[in-house]
Q: What sequence folds into this?
């Protein structure tokens, strides 16, 4: 969809901080209205770009814009300063309508050093705005990344609107009288940049000032220094003649409700807390630190007041093992990890399948194989989640589609795990984990209740009065959850095959056959909602092309479809949340379209499953760059596909 | 006592586990499963000892849990009428950890073997011991892989001829007591399957200890490592000259008439065996299982030779040390006491905005 920008003249007399030191004198600045803006902050890993981007995001959220963010940072904590591998960036897309992605290309690039410029310039469209911290464009820093001449000083950037600002010098100047060391003053240059951008986009500033006071509560001098630098940046925009235009992005018309900004990892953690509350079960998280899943461990460790116990295990196996032990004892066992950790947990996940105990296994996927790309995103663990255990070892798989959706996924997975006494895998990924969006805070009273339904007495169908741990519920095929401490239900379970019903060890061939099929039938029989199709012309006049995705690609696929429809073409979109079992209507849906295209951030794992299961000639579009799909990229793919020109 | 010095809660290993006044017998703890170890296996003796020791604890049977890994010894839980889990190879301590942390009302036992605990599960063993989680680990050491039919184990002697080492094993063995004492085990003991009295005494002390109690049990595998411990298992003069029994507060003496004793090495760092007549009674070390410095217990563990020339048995170390699980539960209690847990407040966070109807 092409969104026209309207330009209006007005004075920049809104959004100014009360205490900005300009005595209320505003010069005439042109204000342009924008429907959407993409800003990318890029700098050295130590420059505080994630924090800067995060703060701007909070201001955009508080202002009521719809937004989506995408951090991009190296796996190294501090790569050598000023080098290309050390560049860290944070991209933010905010708009006055509901957006779906963090944006393909930035409208504004903030480059804190030559490396950040070199690494990001290719993404800046011609005519885009570049704001560069010229202090860092020294001969040494330029040479480090291979610039022969200073691009800020020759005409190599003439295709862009370039603002060259001595951010560090100006920040230091603003802090001259604080007595702060030169180094500390220089470090506040990111807040200077933030202040300048806040001025440029009419962002409110109180939130950032409050944030800085809280963040540096123990160092009030640093808090004030950062606030001074922040205001200096704002004033720089306001008072210097360099900037002739500012931009306004009006609040978005979101559904009525209370909103907050949330990342996927935080939403998952909150979903787990809520699942504990809604089930009345104590939560036990067994986890080993791994990027990009560690933040779930960090977040949950703050919420012990909700009866959450977090255990940083000695390794991935102990993470899941301890969670299984906790589940055996009647807690909600949870383990969180990323792809390599799932590999290590496989055997124990198989044990949980055999034990038929509730368990959440959360895989925040990243680039693989092996260590791969720890900080980048990929969807390449789908087949591992499906099949990465020995034997016939089915378990349900749920994939959230957006950061906020991770909350619902955690609740749904818990309900499934508890009702069906099974481990459930949640497939998040790096882009969901660290990306953020406005999230409509749910009404706590509307959250589903989850009934643990612990076994309380013997269940034998004969006169023995015994407890049979593998006697299944007729409806769900779930076995009873009998926790230690319940008198009369003492029983032994384990990884060896068990006799159907009584649960004692059984090597009987017919019993094994039956148990394998029962475990499969239990998972296959879990009801999941039918797949919904977004097909503008309705089922009677289906589009030629159905695009089917899963997980985090929901945003870019939706944005791509929106663009294609904006061009007057017809395209249908559907998104899979349940990867196992699949929705009952999936086969019918796939057969109802002339062409089905599945874009995935892997080499076609869902396509493989769909082709095998439904014998439909799925077309696959794949990408494994470690970065999410772009809306423009998918728009082109979809348009080509509609022309019958598939890759 | 160390407990008083450090201000630790003087809890026993079974405090918090519900008890019963009903009389219990070994039969009550016997499940309906047929025991399927090989005839003559040392595991039978341990099972019999455990079945008769458990009733003495006076616990509610439903609050006792046995968790095992993989191997012959790991079939143990099936034969006890308690809650039990026969898990996967080497991982029993991890499962017991999650259970013990979330359920202080359970008495948790881990049953494992030399391959399960020291090879595939070595990492979990040392970390459970390090954290001092309230559980009792029984390591059945037969110095061989039995269930996989006779490969050498991490406690097999160098040069051992097995199916996988036809020219002799090259692996330097672990001394299990040294391993766990290196991880600062708060309770570490060794006993022998054939010695029912000592086995029961050690198990009782282990269950009463709060924290991880580690008990190594020398156990004979009549099929793949027959007679490995015969020189110390057989009651008689030979075993008296080899076994060094530890008794808290008593000089460490052994032999036919107590003619041998444990004394400090000349350099002062270790311990050695010497004839008491040569060194004098005053030189014989008095055993103190409560000694806080694990070096003493470690030095005792080094007196045990792989060839069983000498073998120390009894309780090496029994000290009070903060336990991970008590601490973890305390943090949850503190957090609950310090602020109300309100889900709505959590979900809203600090920065919300409202979109109103137009």
A:
């Amino acid at each position: 969809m092409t969104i026209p920008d309207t330009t209006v003249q007005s004075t920049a007399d809104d959004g100014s901080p009360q205490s900005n030191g300009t005595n209320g004198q505003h010069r005439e600045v042109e204000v342009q209205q924008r429907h959407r803006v993409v800003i990318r902050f890029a700098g050295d890993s130590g420059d505080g770009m994630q924090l800067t981007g995060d703060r701007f995001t909070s201001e955009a959220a508080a202002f009521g814009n719809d937004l989506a963010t995408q951090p991009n940072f190296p796996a190294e904590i501090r790569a050598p300063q000023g080098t290309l591998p050390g560049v860290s960036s944070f991209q933010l897309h905010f708009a006055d309508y509901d957006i779906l992605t963090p944006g393909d290309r930035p409208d504004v690039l903030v480059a804190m050093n030559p490396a950040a410029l070199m690494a990001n310039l290719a993404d800046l469209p011609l005519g885009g705005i570049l704001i560069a911290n010229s202090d860092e464009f020294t001969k040494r820093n330029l040479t480090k990344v291979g610039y022969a001449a200073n691009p800020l000083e020759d005409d190599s950037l003439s295709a862009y609107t370039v603002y060259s600002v001595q951010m560090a010098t100006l920040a230091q100047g603003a802090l001259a009288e604080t007595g702060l060391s030169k180094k500390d003053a220089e470090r506040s240059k990111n807040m200077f940049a933030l202040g300048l951008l806040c001025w440029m986009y009419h962002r409110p500033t109180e939130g950032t000032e409050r944030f800085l006071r809280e963040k540096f509560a123990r160092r009030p001098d640093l808090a004030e220094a950062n606030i001074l630098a922040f205001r200096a940046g704002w004033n720089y925009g306001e008072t210097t003649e360099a900037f002739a235009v500012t931009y306004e992005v009006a609040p978005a018309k979101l559904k009525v409700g209370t909103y907050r900004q949330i990342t996927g990892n935080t939403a998952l953690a909150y979903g787990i807390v809520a699942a504990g509350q809604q089930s009345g079960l104590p939560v036990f998280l067994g986890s080993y630190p791994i990027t990009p899943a560690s933040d779930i461990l960090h977040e949950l460790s703050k919420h012990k007041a909700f009866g959450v116990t977090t255990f940083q295990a000695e390794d991935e196996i102990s993470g899941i093992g301890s969670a299984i032990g906790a589940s055996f004892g009647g807690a909600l066992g949870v383990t969180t990890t990323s792809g390599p950790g799932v590999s290590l947990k496989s055997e124990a996940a198989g044990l949980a399948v055999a034990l038929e105990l509730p368990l959440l296994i959360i895989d925040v996927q990243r680039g693989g194989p092996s260590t791969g790309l720890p900080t980048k995103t990929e969807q390449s663990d789908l087949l591992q989640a499906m099949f990465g255990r020995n034997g016939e070892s089915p378990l349900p798989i749920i994939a959230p589609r957006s950061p906020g959706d991770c909350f619902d996924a955690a609740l749904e997975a818990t309900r499934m795990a508890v009702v069906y006494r099974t481990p459930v895998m949640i497939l998040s990924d790096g882009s969901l984990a660290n990306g953020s969006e406005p999230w409509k805070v749910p009404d706590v009273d509307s959250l589903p209740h989850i009934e643990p339904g612990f076994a309380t007495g013997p269940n034998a169908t004969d006169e023995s009065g015994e407890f049979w741990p593998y006697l299944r519920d007729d409806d769900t095929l779930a076995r009873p959850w009998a926790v230690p401490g319940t008198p009369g239900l003492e029983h032994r379970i384990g990884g060896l095959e068990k006799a159907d019903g009584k649960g004692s060890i059984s090597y009987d061939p017919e019993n094994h056959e039956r148990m394998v099929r029962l475990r499969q039938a239990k998972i296959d029989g879990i009801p999941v909602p039918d797949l919904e199709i977004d097909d503008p012309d309705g089922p009677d006049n289906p589009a030629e092309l159905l695009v089917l995705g899963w997980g985090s690609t929901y945003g870019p696929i939706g944005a791509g479809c929106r663009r294609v429809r904006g061009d007057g073409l017809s395209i249908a979109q559907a998104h899979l949340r349940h990867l196992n079992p699949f929705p009952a209507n999936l086969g019918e849906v796939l057969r109802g379209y002339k062409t089905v295209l599945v874009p995935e951030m892997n080499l076609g794992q869902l396509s493989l499953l769909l082709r095998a299961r439904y014998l439909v000639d799925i077309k696959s579009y794949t990408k494994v760059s470690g970065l999410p799909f772009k809306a423009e990229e998918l728009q082109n793919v979809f348009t080509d596909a509609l022309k019958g020109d598939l890759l | 006592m160390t407990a008083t010095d450090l201000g630790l809660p003087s809890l026993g290993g079974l405090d918090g586990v519900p008890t019963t006044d009903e009389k219990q017998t070994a039969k009550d703890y016997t499940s309906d499963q047929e025991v399927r170890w090989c005839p003559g296996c040392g595991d039978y003796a341990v099972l019999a000892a455990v079945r008769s020791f458990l009733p003495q604890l006076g616990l509610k049977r439903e609050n006792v849990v046995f968790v095992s890994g993989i191997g012959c010894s790991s079939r143990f839980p099936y034969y006890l009428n308690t809650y039990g889990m026969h898990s996967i190879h080497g991982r029993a301590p991890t499962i017991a950890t999650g259970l013990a942390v979330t359920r202080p009302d359970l008495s948790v036992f881990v049953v494992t073997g030399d391959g399960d605990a020291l090879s595939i599960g070595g990492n979990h063993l040392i970390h459970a011991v390090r954290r001092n989680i309230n559980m009792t680990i029984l390591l059945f050491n037969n110095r061989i892989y039995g269930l996989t039919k006779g490969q050498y184990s991490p406690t097999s002697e160098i040069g051992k001829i097995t199916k996988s080492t036809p020219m002799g094993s090259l692996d330097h063995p672990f001394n299990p007591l040294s391993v766990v004492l290196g991880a600062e085990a708060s309770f570490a003991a060794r006993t022998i399957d054939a010695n029912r009295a000592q086995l029961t005494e050690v198990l009782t002390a282990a269950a009463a200890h709060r924290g991880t109690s580690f008990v190594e049990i020398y156990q004979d595998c009549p099929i793949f490592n027959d007679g490995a411990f015969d020189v110390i298992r057989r009651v008689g003069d030979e075993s008296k000259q080899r076994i060094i029994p530890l008794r808290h507060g008593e000089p460490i003496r052994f032999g036919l008439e107590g003619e041998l004793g444990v004394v400090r090495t000349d350099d002062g760092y270790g311990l050695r065996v010497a004839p008491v007549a040569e060194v004098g009674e005053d030189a014989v070390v008095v055993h103190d299982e409560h000694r806080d410095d694990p070096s003493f217990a470690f030095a005792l563990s080094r007196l045990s030779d792989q060839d069983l020339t000498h073998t120390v048995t009894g309780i090496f170390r029994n000290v009070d040390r903060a336990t991970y699980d008590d601490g973890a539960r305390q943090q949850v209690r503190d957090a609950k006491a310090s602020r109300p847990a309100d889900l709505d407040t959590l979900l809203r966070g600090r920065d919300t905005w409202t979109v109103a109807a137009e």
